[in-house]
Amino acid sequence: MRLTQWMMVALTGTVLAGCGSLGDNLRTPGLDEYSSDRRRDQVRGRIGGTDGILIFGTDRSQQRPGAGQDGGGIGVNAYLWRASLDTLSFMPLSSADPFGGVLITDWYSPPGSQGERFRATAYVLGRQLRSDGVRIALFRQELRGNAWVDVPVAASTAAELEDQVLNRARELRAQSVAASG
């Protein structure tokens, strides 16, 4: 019984000693670790310097150079994000994560076709406005009997939606440049 008590005291002491060093890792409200160049303000959590292993948090070293250009307050390109929302606005929205860049719609049945429904998931893949910056996955189901059955969707349909998103993103960017200049 004494060994168990001794181990509990040692474990409690170790945990409390570890808590004493948390002061350097706590985020102070008001500091902007995303855009600050001061080493002290950057998010902690790497072992071995800037090219080490990421333990906790997100690698913000690659986001810092263009932090204020394209994104505003979201984690992906604002033009691609807004264009994805605009392009898929005819479908009911199920989920939207602007920081992760994932947009999920609910099932949508076109007015002219009974017994058929579609669902889309859009992925905005980065902070730059590039042609490979958005991917759309489409899902289609048909009503057979009393059950919905998955049916393949032509790859060209998803590609057409991606092109529409890219065209809309270019329009939004051109409008933004025209308004600021």
Structure notes:
The protein is 30% helix and 21% strand. With 181 residues, the protein is of the alpha+beta class. It is flat. It has helices at 2-19, 78-87, 155-180, and strands at 46-47, 53-54, 93-97, 102-105, 116-124, 134-144, 147-151. It has 3 helices and 7 strands. Residues 22-36, 41-49 and 63-72 have low confidence and may be disordered. Strand 1 and strand 2 form a beta hairpin.
Key attributes of the depicted protein:
181 residues, alpha+beta, 3 helices, flat
Would you spell out the secondary-structure blueprint of this structure?
Layout: H1 2-19, E1 46-47, E2 53-54, H2 78-87, E3 93-97, E4 102-105, E5 116-124, E6 134-144, E7 147-151, H3 155-180
Antiparallel strand pairs: 1-2, 3-4, 4-5, 5-6, 6-7
Helix pairs in contact: 2-3
Rounded average pLDDT: 77
Give the end-to-end Cα distance, rounded to a whole number of Å. Answer: 77 Å
* Major sheet: 5 strands, antiparallel
Spatial strand order of the main sheet: 3-4-5-6-7
Count the strands?
Answer: 7
Contiguous uncertain segments of 5+ residues: 22-36, 41-49, 63-72
Task: Write down the overall geometry.
Answer: flat
Helical stretch tally: 3
Oligomer designation: single chain
Secondary-structure element series: HEEHEEEEEH
Helical fraction: 25-40%
Radius of gyration: 24 Å
Helix and strand content put the structural class at alpha+beta
Strand content: 15-25%
